[in-house]
Amino acid sequence: MSESIQVTSHVARDFLQNSAYFNTVPKVVWEYVSNSVDNPKPNSPVNVEVKISKERIVISDDGCGMSREGLRNFFQMHAENIQRLKGKSVRGRYGTGKCAVFGIADVLRIETSQDSVLNVVELSRNQISRAKSGEPFPVRNIVVNQPTTQEDGTRVIISELNIRNVELAATIAYVERHLGRQLHNRNVVINNHVCEYQEPYHSRRRIFRPSPNVAKITGDIELVINVSPTPLDKERAGIDILSKGIWHDTTLGTLEGDVARRIFGEVDIPILEEKYDREKIPPFDNTRNMTLNLANPLVVTLLGWTNECLHEIARELADEEKERKSSEEAKRLAKQARDLENLLNSDFRSLQIELEKIRRLARLREREAIEDLVPGFGVVQTDYQLGGPEHGNGTAGELAGPGEEERPGLSILPGKEMGSPGKVSERKQLQSTFHVDYRHEEEQSPRSRYESESRTIVINLDHPQIARSAREGGIDGKQFQEMTHEIAFVEYAIALGYEKLRRDEFYSSSEMLLDIRDTINRVSQAI
Length: 527
Prior knowledge:
It contains 14 helices and 20 strands. By secondary structure, it is α+β, with helices and mostly antiparallel strands.
């Protein structure tokens, strides 16, 4: 009888491949923060502190901690989640989170106390790599079942980081978004920043319920869609998909552009969790991409219905915008906006040469260019000359190859030859197209803002200061026009500073502040 064939796994390779999904600091920190949140002491809110530096990341909690057996379960790939086995709704599902650290670092150390017993273990990339034949690899014991007076809790230390940017702001935003309203009963602090749930201001809210046919699949759920008067950052826009309060995905359907960036909300669909173990095609994507599985029929139904509701809102907003732009007031404001644009763009065109010089100098610093004028056969005096032996009159062909004598040194050397513009100077001019737009964005919104992608300066007509000047003197009055011009000048000056900052790594923030002041003076005098 022939030997049976069994399914096996290369443990080390499986471990490191799973870690590749955790390729950013936010994802890694969230993995361990969510572990802490899922394992509090009975009837007590958990406190989590995160310290992020260039050298290491430390996540500490005062949760229930782990025993020696708990640690053994923690390091088992695809193990059952203990809290889930107890019937609790928690985030952990696939048992792959322990490998998260190796997506960005080389060493993981865990110090954990439970019932006055301390255990400390450490795992490094070198230990994993030595398991070449696929056998299980040991975690290094540092402290084993040592009596302690420490309170229960766990400390995760991630060191030997392989990243350039610790992404502090993005990590804070990621954790705040994913914990959401549950931050009210959990305390998470990242580098002394207390994470808080702050729902963006909305000017409109719609609540949708599925039709009877859809409800047969999704259950009787409620979709809340909010519309912000101003675009939101990517960490706040979108509809959060929850199941029993646990976040699983965020969607904007097929919406794009400015409308998509203004929409946020949520839908809680308990059946996702309830049917998980009974589905042949699971609703959750186990690649840790924090997305739902589009091959699951329930997910397809949910996302399709959500997309229809989103587009209904988008059509309403489009109709309102069309009506607004057709009004007499909008036409008069549009004319004022064009006058402002002409003034700002005239100033910007005069600065293009300076900005282009900055860009060229930056290229020179990276040694990617030598000079815009290429020496040889030109009529303009350059500071360079062609180097190496003179070129012959050879022909190109299949047998062409290197010459008998090597051309020593650089092809372009310091000298005084006449030259002509080379390819390095054949670049598109900077677009001199700043835009100004007057919009109604609610009185709680900022007085003005700058949309960098479209280079648009937005002036909020609903801001109390601007609205008052419009009421008192009209939108054609001197008070309104002088105020909105001054607002546009400030936004333009700040935008110019960022344009220079983006092009020149040696451009300092102090220089930027001086340039902002000079720009405001210059354009205000021009008007």
